[in-house]
Amino acid sequence: MGWDREHPVAAFLGRRGETFDQNVGGQWQNLGEAAFDRYVESRYRQAVAVLGSRGASVVLMTTPYYDSGVPPAGGAWPEDDPARVSIDNATMQTVADTTPGGADGGRVYVFDLNTVLSPGRR
Q1: What pLDDT score does 20 carry?
Q2: 5: pLDDT strictly greater than 80
Q3: What's the CA gap between 63 and 39, in Å, rounded?
Q4: pTM for the whole structure
Q5: Distance (Å, rounded) from C-alpha 16 to C-alpha 9?
Q6: Three-state SS for 39?
Q7: Which of 46, 61, 75, 87 fits 113 for a cystine, CB–CB 3.0-4.6 Å?
Q8: Distance of alpha carbon 26 from its chain centroid, rounded?
Q9: Residue 57 φ then ψ, to 5°
Q10: Helix axes 82-98, 34-51, angle to 10 degrees
């Protein structure tokens, strides 16, 4: 039994990596920069297309707020910035809201994992 013969009912995607600084095209970028925000949205759309390609509904799980501690230089880790998390979660919601159901009826949903793990943005 392989993926080609299976028709999953649902596929889940949860990740935090989009909140980190990333090197794209030789330049370091992060959420909150318009070009990178569009890039992240395109990555979510690509993931949704692949995960839903056999008709599965896709569930995007929001990113919780993190406190990874203090980096060696002091301050806070950039990926822990609540603004980045909020942009990431809003991007997931935009993708879900603007992706039509596929031919097999698959849809895109957002499970707000953030409110479960980070009530009050903590």
Answers
A1: 93
A2: no
A3: 17
A4: 0.85
A5: 24
A6: helix
A7: 61
A8: 22
A9: -75, 145
A10: 50
